[in-house]
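Worked example 2:
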Amino acid sequence: MTDHGDAEGDDVTREYWDGLVDSFREEHPDIEVEVSVHPARVAEQKVAEAVGKGEPPDIAQLGSFAGHAAAGRLHPVNEVLSIPVQADFVPALASAGELRHVQYALPFAANLQLLFYNKELFAAAGLDPDRPPRTWEELRGAAVALRDSGVDVPYGLAFGARDAHTEAMAWMLGNGGGFTGEGGLYALATSENVQTLTWLRDELVGRGLTTADPSLTSRRALSDMFVEGKVGMLTGSLSLMRRAEDGKLDHGTAPLPGRRGPSRTSLGSAQWMFAFRREGNHEAVGAFLDHVYAEEHHYRFADRHTTLPVTVSATERMRGDARHKRVRPFLNRLGAAEFHPWHKVSWAVVGEEIRENIGRAVLPGGDPASVLDALQRTAEKEEAARER
């Protein structure tokens, strides 16, 4: 399993899994269970090594699943999960775990991107701290006011090589674009996407409303500056909310502004749970997964580890918990979330190409159309290579 840390900043999830295994053994004393927990990259490597030896684990919880599903190594979800548990998943998340319209992966830890803004800086700039921008034009106007009031970074645009794919797609969704289109095909070089990157280049970067070079700017660095009160606005997830709360920063969240109004969809993310095919293992695997996703267990994980629940039952429980009032804007948007195309085996390569190259498009003198055309050609080539 992948280590997720928790709301207190710890680096292990061992205590959670140990408790879950203990309760499972009480109900199923005849089923042997052993869980190992590793940092994300180590977990991916260990599973790859085990698969290479022909000894895959029964269950893995990782950041990607498409390669294993395409190779026929995984159980379809309906072979291992009970019907009530299958029906409890948030539909947008369940469908994101499909390959060729068959669900192989179960969402486990979800997150979402929203607009974060510093209410104190808004007030000091003469902006209404209870009225965040709803459109691109309003966001630019707010950024200008923040700059004129002396804010170091009016809008934190994270187009560094680690984060560019997330920042770019979040903005593209606000203009009806994204990385894929009809039929799930790559659609990177659309007019909507070109328009989005052109607007960012001309209206934010070109006007000095971001860091000097967004293509070298990481989300981590911007988050640090936001918590220190040096960034007026940026996109962020639940981890940023927790850091802002710990730093007692007066902040607000809102849907990311779109070209003509608030973005109707938000960029989501998830970790995935899936079951490898091993002779005679589906009943034991199914029993354990049903236990993992029981409301009380899944809610306990999301509550402790600063993630969004992936089931309807746990989502409603969190929505009704007064301790999680600040999380409700995330919960309200999760059902309409869109995701990076994890269902594509080619995404590992295409996503890396986007991270490495798309930042050039928003720099002064950058050419969004050329950058996106090149990325589209790469995406089509990689996709075709995996269809052979």
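The chain has a mean pLDDT of 93. The longest strand covers residues 266-275.
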